[in-house]
Amino acid sequence: MTFYRISILAAAGLTLAACDSQLHREEAQTKAQEQHSTPQPSATQEAATPQDRAVLLRGDLKNSFSTVQAAVDAAQPGDVIRVHPGTYSETVRIVGKQGTADQPITLEAKSGTVVLDGADPGLQIVPNQRWKPTEDGAWESVVPWAGPLERAQVTPVSPEEGPLLAAYHLPQKFSELSRGAGTLRVGTRLRIRFPDGKDPNAESLSVGISEAVVLFEDAEHWVLRGLELRHGGNAAVAIKGKSSNISLEGLTCRGSWCGIATEPGPNGNHDIRVLDCHVANRMNPAWHWTEGYEDVGDKKNEFEAPVRGTGILVEADQVEIRGNTVSGFWDGMAVRGVDIDIAENTISDIHDDGIELECGRSANVRFRDNRISNAFVGISLVSQQPGPVYIYRNRVSANREDPMDAKGPKFRRYGYCLKMGVDWGPGAQNVAIYQNTFYAKRLVLWDKEMAVWKDFRFVNNIFVSDGMKNDAGEEEAYMIWNTGMEKNGVLWNGNLYHQTRPGGILFRKWNGAADVKTLAAARQLCLGWEAAGREADPEFSTFDSGRGASNEFALSPSSPAINAGAQLLSDWPDSVRVTDGKPDIGAVESDVQHKGASNEFH
Ligand SMILES: [Ca+2]
Ligand SMILES: [Ca+2]
């Protein structure tokens, strides 16, 4: 409670109306101009007052502003804007504002915790009188919305405790409360219902009133650092228009539909960096997976699918996404573009895909040294072209038991580490998957029936599967649903396989033909695959097969994976120098100190 009172007090101290963002901006701009034309050096102050929320530094000059927006509007290339510790009801628009390569503009937390809260402050007050009962047992309030009108609907409402409330798309789903308590938002009209008819005026609820807490549009050469961004309508940080050289560093993003999102479509965004950010939502793990595709308008339009928010959604060229933690979303990441490095991230608690590498124009993508756990699917490679995509040194646990739908035996089930094939588009190609450790409680690899995938190479990976299919304890017969075919440039070599399913079948349609139960049987089909492979327990030094566990997958000294791998092709990048010249199988080279991702943040 304390937390929101601070926020409300901060908001109350403003002369700006948070409910009218246009007025807010104009007023901010006027203030900015006034203050900027008569710069006054200000004394260093530890606590922010309404007059000095942000300080703009330009050489020796120091200029205080009562809003972050005012400081942003006044900024010139090379300026540094520091925001004082505190929680502020404010969203920031950086539109057409450009630094230069030598003199970027920096917006950062001065010290301590600096929160920009994009929610309507009036609905955070307890009690409030904003909600009026409707005839059908719901409540309704007028809540401002600044953003594309059709996107208001995906905004999740955050209660103070517990998971996000459902944002419904279809009125029918809202009336049934198919995902529990939730909202239906059409423009500025927001309706809410609780199963027990609870009065929302007695609840502190956070509802985003603009599409992003920080919006970049046609912006260049900005650094955004160290802020906590809460309750964006569509995203904590949105990047739109033709924006470039945007560096997001050490941000914490909470309670938005997406964490960090560039506008979809090849719109010319480039040079985007997302470094050491914590992107966390509280999606309710009890929601049925099918709701992602049932409570929607156009199934292909993510912005009409309130369940399907993504932690980091980047469609741009020249992208670095490193050292982030992402948890509590539908998809952890979706990344599309050319020249992309995604490294040392930790992705967990994911309803659908840890990462989507699904794009008709992705090339030179490296997905490396990441850790995915408690995800339904680890890596989705549906329709990925033209490549190359290099996937290496990742630790992937597809060990989330997901509620699927309310009907029958599919009620809860596990997914798979790798998903390929054709849900849409022409298929996937030119992907090298090497030196990873994959653990699934069901299949390690699945694709839609014999889809076309070409030039895939699987080398020196550990594949481990328990084979469990659902909460009734049913076993999946297969471990690898499809191997692809040699004639399509597919190669398997140096991998270690371990399955614990009774009577399990290792490969379904080995090279497009027979099902084979063991690696020895597969070799008798006389293909050039898996001369160096083996079937054995990898002997991890510690291993937790529990639901949702995150594993190190380090090898014990007696592991058969040590020094057992094949030599990698010389043009494949690797983040580990194999000092003994003998690659181990799996993500963790036993005699090398790894930089891998941590898993400390939730
Ligand atoms: Ca997905
Ligand atoms: Ca070795």
Describe what this molecule looks like in 3D.
With 602 residues, this protein is mainly β. Among the domains are: 2-90, no CATH class; 370-602, no CATH class. 8% of the residues lie in helices and 37% in strands. It is built from 6 helices and 47 strands. The strands form 6 sheets. It has a 21-stranded parallel sheet that branches. The chain has a 15-stranded mixed sheet that branches. Helix 2 packs across helix 3 (68-74). It is globular. The model is unreliable at 1-46 and 597-602 (pLDDT under 50). The protein binds calcium ion (2 copies).
Topology:
Elements: H1 2-12, H2 21-37, E1 54-58, E2 61-65, H3 68-74, E3 80-83, E4 86-89, E5 92-95, E6 105-109, E7 114-117, E8 132-133, E9 139-142, E10 158-159, E11 166-168, H4 171-176, E12 182-186, E13 189-193, E14 205-206, E15 212-217, E16 220-225, E17 228-230, E18 235-240, E19 244-249, E20 252-254, E21 258-262, E22 270-275, E23 278-280, H5 291-294, E24 310-315, E25 317-322, E26 325-329, E27 331-336, E28 338-343, E29 346-356, E30 359-368, E31 371-380, E32 384-386, E33 389-392, E34 395-398, E35 402-403, E36 412-413, E37 416-420, E38 428-434, E39 437-440, E40 443-447, E41 453-459, E42 462-465, E43 478-480, E44 491-493, E45 496-499, E46 505-507, H6 519-523, E47 534-535
Parallel strand pairs: 3-6, 4-7, 5-15, 6-16, 7-17, 11-12, 15-18, 16-19, 17-20, 18-21, 19-22, 20-23, 21-24, 22-25, 23-26, 24-27, 25-28, 26-29, 27-29, 28-30, 29-31, 30-32, 30-33, 31-34, 31-37, 33-38, 34-39, 37-40, 38-41, 39-42, 41-44, 42-45, 43-46, 45-47
Antiparallel strand pairs: 1-2, 1-3, 8-9, 9-13, 10-14, 12-13, 35-36
One calcium ion binds at residues 563, 578, 580, 582-584, 589, 591.
